[in-house]
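# nightly structure sweep
# worker-07 picked up a monomer target from the shared queue
# config: single-sequence mode, recycle default, output format = structure tokens
# input follows
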Amino acid sequence: METADEIFDDANGDLAVGDLDSAVEKYRRCVQIAPDFFDGWHALGMALMKLGRFTEAIEAGKKAVELRPNDQIGWTSLSLFYNRAGHLSRLTSYISPNIDPLVCRPNHWRSVGNVERLLKFWHVRDRAVAPVMGW
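# output follows
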């Protein structure tokens, strides 16, 4: 029987050659075998986002940030999934109570405008997100 790491590596190969459907199936197997596998949840979300399956990507992203609540890459990816789905207000309601004060000062980011500035900071180099957010 293959390990989650072996399946993950195989899924990454599928992703590299553009076989997103196969990669998603393998990433799902990874997280079924190892439900606490952050990299598997994160990669699953990214592949689902590339396929335009934003609702599923958001759920995978939420699982990733639950596993590593202080991981900036996890939060950045989750915000990207919400942005691509056009759900900034849902992200705002999710991020405010969950963000760790060690990552940023939560009282500073309470309003929607401040969360938008936080997301702009996180995605300033992402040309695909910038037009969605109006930057």
